[in-house]
Structures are given as C-alpha cells and as structure tokens.
Amino acid sequence: MERKKLIGLICCVALICIGFAFSGHISLYFNLAALCIVIGGTLGATLISFKIESLKNLYQVLKRSNRQSIKEPEEIVEILIDISVKSRVKGLLSLQEEEETSILFLRRALGFLVDGYPNKEITEILNTEMAFFKIRREESERILRTIAEICPAFGLIGSIVGLIGMIAGMADSAIIIKTIPIALTSTLYGVIFSNFFLLPFAANIRERTNRELLLQKMILSGILAVKSKMHPRILEVKLKSFLTPSLRNSKLVSIERIRKKLNIDINSTKKPSTAYESSIKAAARG
C-alpha cells in the first residue's frame, strides 16, 4: 500500500477509536453477533449477485492497486523521448533491449513497433486494449459500489433482529441487555464498512484507472510518433500537452542523461555525416 494511503488509514482508524473511547469503553462497540449478521449477509448477497471470476478479478485489482505503484506522466514523457532518440540513433531493433518495458502496455506497443505493424493496426489494437481495460476496471468498481449499498441494509437487518429480541424479552431485563447492543452496533458496522472501506476503495479504483488510461494514451501517441520518426524535441512538446501546466517545463532533453542512460556516444569523434545525424545530436542537447 502507498505510504500516504497507509498513513491516512492509520490516522482515521486511530481517530475513530479515540472517539469511541471518549463516548465510553471501546469494548461496548464490539458485538460478535452483529458482526456476523453484517459480514455474513453481505458476503452471501455478494456471492449470489456476482460470478466467482468477477470477484477474483476484483481481488486482483485491489491487490495490485495497493501493492504496485504506477509511473507518473512526466516519467512516461522521459521514457518515450529516450526511446525516440534510441530508435533514431541505433534503429528500431535496438528497442527490443529497452529496459523500460517493465510497463506491460509499453512492452506490447514496442513489440508492435519492432515487428513493423502499420500505424492503423497499432492504433486499433491498443485502442481496443484500452477500451476493455476500462470496461474491466469499471466492472470491479461497480461490484464494490454494489457491496457498499448492500452492507448498510444488513446493518438494518441486524437492528431489526435486535429489536425483535428486545420486544420478545420485555419481561426479562437480561434479554434486553443482550439484544440492544445487537440492534445498535449492526447499523454502526454496516455504515462503517460501507463508507470507510468499500466506497473509498471503489473511488481509488476509478482514480487509478483514469491515471493508467492517461499513461496508455501518452504511450500510444508516443509510439506512433516514434514510428513516424518525429523529431524528439517535437515529441517532447507533444507529450507534455498531456500534462497539467504545473508539471510542464521548458527544459530540453539532456544529452548527458541520454548518453548515460542509453549508452549512446553522441559526442563521438566521428563527425555527423548527414543532416539527419546532426538533428539527433541537436535534439538531445539540453
């Protein structure tokens, strides 16, 4: 889990527990019967509503979103500019050795580029992949939001169960003492699970999906530009149009960074023999 999420979760849990402690002993807010009603009912309704495969996919999405970080847009800009310069200096086949292909979408796009797919086919394949990626993520978000709607309903059911027991035992104070906590804590559990866990996780999936789609669009645009042999400086300006104004800067690609990262001897003793080679050197100069 990202550090900011973990810190936020710990702080919120601590504040809620402090609030419970100020209102009375924390153990007063724990009731096993109410917990079983809410969790058991929600779990049963979820299994009835959705396929096991969909729930497994939701689990994988949640696991990846809390364990794997995604690159920032400005990092993708640098990666694509490096790829552009490398392809012009060493050729497209050198991209097979590109270390930054740890990004699955970028790896696939580079594979199409090296294999010589036409622009139209690259665009169609990657756009299709982006569309179904969005559909799968929206399904996971929809499942979480549905579970969030179900959870408070079972909290209400627990409250009704507690009230029925209380009314049935009006003559016995011991029964009333046992059933009142069920009636009250069930609603509490349902609201907490829904609004503190399920809805925030669903919102996080949507936010992460939007970020990943932005990166995928940048990669698609960058790969097509590399294939069309667009000048790296022009590519940099084009890709930075995806960024917010606060993330843009006017610095050119650093020749030293490219030389070290890509192991390209741009300042070799051999003079550039063509205007093309001269443009590569100029593009990389910062």
Describe the structure.
This protein has about 290 residues and is mainly α. The protein has one domain. It is about 75% helix and about 0% strand. Helix 3 crosses helix 6, helix 4 runs parallel beside helix 7 and helix 5 packs parallel to helix 7.
Give a brief rundown of this model.
With 286 residues, this protein is an all-alpha fold. The chain has helices at 3-23, 32-49, 52-67, 73-90, 104-114, 119-168, 173-227, 232-240, 255-262, 275-284. It has one domain (35-284).
Key terms:
286 residues; mainly alpha; 10 helices
Number of strands: 0
Q: What sequence of helices (H) and strands (E) makes up the elements?
A: HHHHHHHHHH
Task: Please describe the biggest sheet, giving its number of strands, its sense, and whether it closes into a barrel.
Answer: none
Q: Strand fraction band?
A: under 5%
Structural class: mainly alpha
Say what oligomer this is.
single chain
Mean pLDDT over all positions: 81
Number of alpha- plus pi-helical segments: 10
**What is the count of distinct domains?**
1
Shape: elongated
Enumerate the spans where pLDDT stays under 50 for 5 or more consecutive residues: 266-280
Kindly provide the radius of gyration, computed on alpha-carbon positions and rounded to a whole number of angstroms.
28 Å
Distance between the termini: 37 Å
